[in-house]
Amino acid sequence: MAGYEYDLFVIGAGSGGVRASRIAAGHGARVGICEDDLVGGTCVIRGCVPKKLLVYGSHVSEEAEDAAAYGWTIPHPRFEWATLRDNVQREVMRLNGVYKNLLKGAGVDLVVGRGRLMDAHTIAVGDRTVTADKILIATGARPWRPDIPGAELAIVSDDAFHLPSLPPRVVIVGGGYIAVEFAGIFNGLGAEVTMVVRRDRVLRGFDEECREAVQDGMRSKGVTFRTGAQITRLERHGKTIVAMLADGSSLEADTVMYATGRNPNTAGLGLEKAGVNLDKAGAVAVDEWSRSTVDNIYAVGDVTNRMNLTPVAIMEGHCFADTVFGERPRKPDHRDVPSAVFSQPQLATVGLSEAQARQIYGKLHCYTASFRPMKYTLSGREQRTFMKLVVDAASDRVVGVHMVGDDAAELIQGIAIAVKAGATKAMFDATVGIHPTAGEEFVTMRTRRPDPAPTAEAAE
């Protein structure tokens, strides 16, 4: 390793790359990292953090409305988009500084610029060339843009944080977590929101009952859905954007936002030149140790398209550093990873959906609860909470926990420990609840939900 400038050079200073570089440096490695944008990656700069701050802002109107039932007289609130936007960006810049200081404090060299591989040990960053024994690719993913006429008229999630003003009418294309989160944000801030979804329901891949609960909750808040629909072209008519749909109908909007997925950010990195194989999606193909097809080149995070969550990228980066530089070999564990969608209503989950669990275990015991939260009994707001336990009938182990409603992410984070530890339904039943809370429902569900009737497809 003495023949190289660095023991490790990381391309991409997002959450996974920063964690890997800091831990490797802590193990005594000489580490450099490059970034052509702000430090912190998608989550900190243009994802989870600024997006959740916008979610907080979008809740205020409902809070003000509900306050009347609790005896508060609040003048009609007035919203200023520029104030929220600029305050969010100020926090993003603060966090960018925090991440830079973390790297500096760990002794990691930050090189500004986009890195590209010249060979398996040489990286060009702008006008500079560096060499390293080990290389880690941690460049994340980027929003996908459609190849349709007028696509340049649409924005993607990265652009939403910098809008000059709040658009009165927004069409959001897509049904994934980014789409539903921004639909809730714009709707809560006062915009008229229409979602164009190719399938019949949002959040494909999540538990079916939860998907239904989220969509019903969004619809009750005023979000309009065009399901089974696809936009074929966008046209500008004056200040209005017209979205032409495949069925011949059209939608008018002030802003059209595409949130139809993200692609691994591998273009222009010189990976093929260095012999690194990519999969069909353009992601870096890695083994269970995060090693690519080139022995000294590794990859973590969304660029590998394994499980695209910030804490997972951090886990993968930490495991890589411990394995390669810390003499503590360990693989990232992608089982029972909790996740949340900050939609309105919020969704959080850990473990398997009912459909996934049936494929693995066959016979299940499922328990559900649906209720209006105590907070809304005075205000009369029609908002419900849905909870679900999925239990393997043979072992009594809880293999999936799901929630739609206020504070779902906070509750599921704690429940995830029990699921990871292999807790059984009997253990949940033996746990005393805290009353009155929503969380106590998870330990008081006693009546099994009847199994769904077999479908014709399943009967074949």
What does this structure look like?
This protein is an alpha/beta fold. It has 3 domains: 6-143 and 263-325, FAD/NAD(P)-binding domain, CATH 3.50.50; 151-260, FAD/NAD(P)-binding domain (3-Layer(bba) Sandwich), CATH 3.50.50.60; 345-448, Enolase-like, domain 1, CATH 3.30.390. Helix content is 32%, strand content 24%. The chain is built from 13 helices and 22 strands. It has helices spanning 15-26, 41-46, 48-67, 81-106, 157-160, 177-188, 208-220, 310-325, 354-361, 375-379, 408-420, 425-430, 456-459, and strands at residues 6-11, 31-35, 109-112, 115-119, 122-125, 128-137, 141-143, 155-156, 169-173, 192-197, 224-227, 231-237, 240-245, 250-253, 255-258, 262-264, 297-299, 339-341, 347-351, 364-371, 385-392, 398-404. Helix 1 packs parallel to helix 8 (310-325). The longest helix is centred in the N-terminal third of the chain and has 26 residues, at 81-106. Mean pLDDT is 96; it is low at 456-460.
